[in-house]
Amino acid sequence: MGVVEQIGTSDHLYTRPNNAFVANFIGKMNFFNARLTGADRARLEGVAVEVTVPPEKNRIPGAAKIGAGAKVLVGARPEHLEVGARPLPGSLPGTVRIIQHLGQVVRYEALLDGEVCDAAVEVDMPSMPPDVREGSRVHVAFKPGLPFLFLPREAD
Description:
156 residues, CATH 2.40.50.140, five-stranded antiparallel β-sheet
């Protein structure tokens, strides 16, 4: 028997998912392993990158009563990330595996270094940055103000 996780319009579920399950069920969501460092901040596992999440995108319920150091997930939709050949502040190094031209966007699938992600990440961009090809070393960065924060057990 199933459980209703959230009720709403498709736009509401996409832009305001209550948890990681809904976020990944309605559209694609990249998940990054992290540890909580503050009310709306998390440090990504294995790298010295801290991500600040807007309070309205923090999906950890107050009743969860977790503190600094707790395992969390930072979530970002493919259009909430950017990829480039040069490092940006807070960017994560990796390698492009696949580039797909999908009409109005170009989708990059990149395998990040270390254990920050359990799978390759998808990044959607309006065009191809110069010097980025399949097999290229790249840097993936979060667009400011767009990541989500979730409890880790919700993604299962």
